[in-house]
DNA sequence: CTCAAGTATGAAAAATCATTCATATGAAGG
DNA sequence: CCTTCATATGAATGATTTTTCATACTTGAG
């Protein structure tokens, strides 16, 4: 650890009723970000996202098998991911094909893994 | 059932037929990533990270005020962040100064917010 | 040594989340 | 229709997290 010893120590007594951080970005954006992260913060769901990221769109059943999940469990997790708009679903005959909602999702997943790999 | 694969690393589940994910990603890395994301996936904690990212190192008390948290609550959340190694703490007199553990953390926070802002 | 400021900790209640099992829906084929 | 495959849903239980309150620790001042 390094010592700050500089201006940082001076900053604390500013009059901020409820905090700048609380206001400087919309509460909605922060909530959305939390929802996004919450949806990713689960082993099975992260696996699903990773599988979609690396192998492309897959059916619910294929994802279940790829990730070692029971059918029902997979479906529940996929619903969480869908609700959080991390994945999109499309029916194809009997199957339902899932894909990542956008590139940003893959980006965050990869960043998180990269960070984890370092530490 | 799972069968003994080559000893070595303890792989919790191996149900991926010829899975890229199975090989290229250790179960440990995935768990670490989940821990990282879990620690960020909370409104108060994300606010703390954001405050640290945008305003630099702060004392526990300053963070509490910036984020609109009670002392005890802030301390509990800071412990979660510390345990997950997202922040580092350093004592300075009576105060304890927190800072982001590394740039990767800020990166992920900003990515998540960027994504949230879009959708 | 005593006190106050700044922070941390522990325990218990409350809230949220995960897992499982059973059942329901919807699509295609006979 | 009836059956079967593929997927979703709901309810119940168990586990984990959050929140709050009270209290303890540490440091600098006097």
How is this structure best described in words?
- The structure is a homodimer of 119-residue chains.
- The relative contact order of chain A is 0.12.
- Chain A is mostly helical.
- Helices cover 57% and strands 12% of the residues of chain A.
- A three-stranded antiparallel sheet of chain A has the order 1-3-2.
- In chain A, strand 2 and strand 3 (95-100) form a beta hairpin.
- The first copy, chain A, has six helices and three strands, in the order H-H-H-E-H-H-E-E-H.
- The interface between A and B is large, with 56 and 60 residues.
Short description:
The structure is a homodimer of 119-residue chains. The first copy, chain A, has 119 residues and is mainly alpha-helical. Chain A has six helices and three strands; from the N terminus they run H-H-H-E-H-H-E-E-H.
């Amino acid at each position: 650890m390094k010592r700050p010893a500089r201006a940082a120590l001076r900053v604390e007594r500013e009059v901020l009723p409820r905090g700048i951080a609380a206001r400087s970005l919309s509460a909605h954006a922060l909530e959305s970000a939390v929802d996004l992260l919450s949806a990713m913060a689960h082993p099975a769901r992260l696996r699903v996202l990773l599988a979609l990221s690396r192998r492309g769109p897959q059916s619910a059943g294929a994802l279940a098998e790829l990730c070692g999940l029971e059918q029902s469990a997979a479906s529940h997790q996929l619903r969480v991911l869908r609700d959080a708009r991390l994945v999109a679903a499309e029916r194809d005959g009997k199957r339902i094909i899932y894909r990542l909602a956008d590139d940003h999702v893959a980006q965050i997943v990869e960043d998180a893994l990269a960070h984890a790999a370092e530490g």
